[in-house]
Each structure stands twice: as structure tokens, then as C-alpha cells.
Amino acid sequence: MVGSFHVSILVHLLFIAITTLVLVWLLHFREGVAFNSSNKAKIFNLHPLLMTIGFVLVSGEAIMIYKSAPGKQRSLKVVHLLLHLVALATGILGIVTVFKFKKEEGLPNMYTLHSWLGMSAICFFGLQYILGFFAFFFPGAEMYTRASLLPWHRFIGMVIFLLSVGTAQLGLAQYFQFLGLFRSQEALIVNFTGLLLFLFAVFVALSRILPRYS
User: Fold this and answer.
1) Contact at 8 Å (CB) between 93 and 33?
2) Are residues 56 and 168 in contact, defined by beta-carbon separation less than 8 angstroms?
3) Which own/partner pairs from 183-186 qualify as long-range (CB within 8 Å, at least 24 positions apart)?
4) Which residues contact 173 (CB under 8 A, 6 or more apart)?
5) More confident residue, 214 or 22
6) Burial class (CB in 10 A: 0-12, 13-18, 19+), 162
7) Most buried of 39, 143, 201, 209, CB within 10 angstroms?
8) For residues 19 and 1, what is the distance between their CA atoms, to the nearest angstrom?
9) What's the pLDDT tens digit per position in 94-144?
């Protein structure tokens, strides 16, 4: 039978595939990325790059690290913590870049469902990270308290992860329509990115409920 370790291999492959598609899309079809540029589209392009690869994919890897990597519990906990820190940092930077883009273009902020869900995801993620850090890492709650908190920590973490994936899907669809894409290579890349993100979320969730080996 298939165990979570085997599923995690597929998740890693999806990580590589999605990263490749996003890089090809933004660097080849969308003129590249930059934090400061006279071409404002390059500033905006940092947003899908950071949010998709840094926030969504890295947080997915962090969720399943206990099932996908060998090592002692303490070591895996540190890796879990660091991966989530990377996801949080890139997520915040991704939010900053889109606000920067809209300010320089004179566009309004926070008026779409995508922006509402995205801000909710990053805020809940940050709160979950802080609470998890103090409860499970330093200084750490009492053993019985951690045992009672752990199922909720896992459940809320998965909800936030799925929220971030759904928000990314919504953002891709919104940008697809904004660009007026129809039947083209770029349209295929955007659609396949969304499809693979869905599969990534499915297999990350599956890795959490399966035993490590079977």
C-alpha cells in the first residue's frame, strides 16, 4: 500500500513542476520580475512569484516535513519552524510588492475577493506561527497542554494552507481575465499551474492522514 512517504515524493515533483511553470510564465511571457523598475508590471510579477513558490509551496513542504524526511522529532520541528518562517517572510514580501505596485500605478487596494482572502491567509498564518512557536517550541507549554493543542494546530494549519491555495487559484483566474488570455501557450501555462496547485494541495493533505510507510 501507499504511505505518506511515497506521496511526499509526488509532492516534491509537483513543487518542481509548479516552480518551473511559474518561472517560465513570469520570466518568458511577462517580462521578468523586479522590486524597482520603470516597467511596473515587473514589480507586480513579484507578487505571484513570491506567493506561489514562497508562501504556498514552501508552507506545503513544511506541513508534511514530519512524514517526508527522516530525523529526530526535535530536528524535524526546527525544519518545520524554519520552512514556515520562510513562507511567512515571502508571503509578507509578496503582499508588500502588490501594495507597492498599486501605489505607484495609482490603483485602489483591497477591493477584490482575492485580496480579502489573501490578507486573511497571511494574517491567520502569522498568528498561527506565533502561537505555535510559543506553545510547541520556546518556551513550550506543558506536555498535556501541547497534546491537547496539537490536533487544533494541525487542523487550523491545514485550513490556512487550503485557504492560501484557493486564494492563489483565484488570483491566477483574476490575472488570466485581466490579461485577456484565450487559447495560447501562456494561457496553458497559467491553467496548468492552477491545476498542479490543486493536486499539490490534495497530496499534501493526503500525506498528513496516511501512515509514513505501509
Assistant:
1) no
2) yes
3) 185/29, 186/25, 186/29
4) 194
5) 22
6) middle
7) 201
8) 29
9) 999 999 999 999 999 999 999 999 999 999 999 999 999 999 998 888 999
Angle at 53 between CA 47 and CA 58, to 5 degrees: 130
Among residues 14, 93, 85, which one has the least CA distance to residue 47?
93
Q: What is the pLDDT of residues 17-57, one digit of tens each?
A: 999 999 999 999 999 999 999 999 999 999 999 999 999 99
Neighbours of 60 (CB within 10 A): 26
* Global confidence as pTM: 0.94
